[in-house]
Amino acid sequence: MVTQSEYWNGNAGKKWASLANNQDTLLGKLGEVTMDSAGLSPGQTVLDIGCGSGGSTFEISRRIGADGTVWGVDISKPMLDIAIARLTNHDIGNVKFSEADVTTLDFTNHSFDRAFSRFGVMFFEDPVASFVNIANSLKPNGKLAFCCWRSLSKNEWFELPLNVGLKYCAPPNQVDPHAPGPMAFKDQDRINGILLASGFTEISIHDHESKLVVGPTPKIAASNLTDVGPLSRLVQNSDNHIKMLVQTELEKQLMEHVTSRGVELNSNIWIVTANKG
Known about the structure:
By secondary structure, this protein is α/β, with parallel strands linked by helices. The protein contains eleven helices and eight strands. It has helices at residues 4-8, 11-18, 20-38, 55-64, 77-90, 127-137, 156-165, 188-197, 218-227, 230-235, 240-254, and strands at 45-49, 69-74, 95-99, 112-118, 138-149, 200-215, 258-259, 262-276. It is globular.
């Protein structure tokens, strides 16, 4: 079995790094809505978990100001290379990045006011161990905030492309629904149980539904949705002819979702906050 470190430092990590700007455009607003629930304020110290290419980290940096500090950590070197290059280009003094696994990272000399993650926690191989270590990183009265995807059926931007792909490709092998992956935290009760077992209190879990602009045109949107998400995994071993058929059919269906902002599809996430116990 491929570990998460191997996955995110292999071709998948390189692909996500190459799509950093697209992903920040696509997911940035959802991260910002989650930050609104985190209680960020000037001068705070913040841990950004699964920071990827740094989009969320830089937004946190803006919110906490020059007197605050934010530490972005991720296991993917390809994505961190993008984050560090962005940091160098913009000369932001209150940000640092590290290639590290938050599950085992030594926080002895660090104490954070807030821990945040934009779609990173679903990939934990041992969620309780990860959240225990995150809790240990927080100051007394410190707060955790993260967002994660709800079920496939509540996320049109996942489900519609996948259904198109299933017309041309064999269904994927069944996997443990709790295995690391985009939908691993779709179950509200599971999230609550993991956080309680990790020592968190005052847990709040609420849904947030919104439209995602998945591309400016159906053609570009179809390409974007073939590059990431469930469809990308479904077609990754298909030949170019099949991929072209999928993309053409997807482009056709996306024409029904064109608005003045571009191609819009429904999304639904959990926004989760909890306090250190």
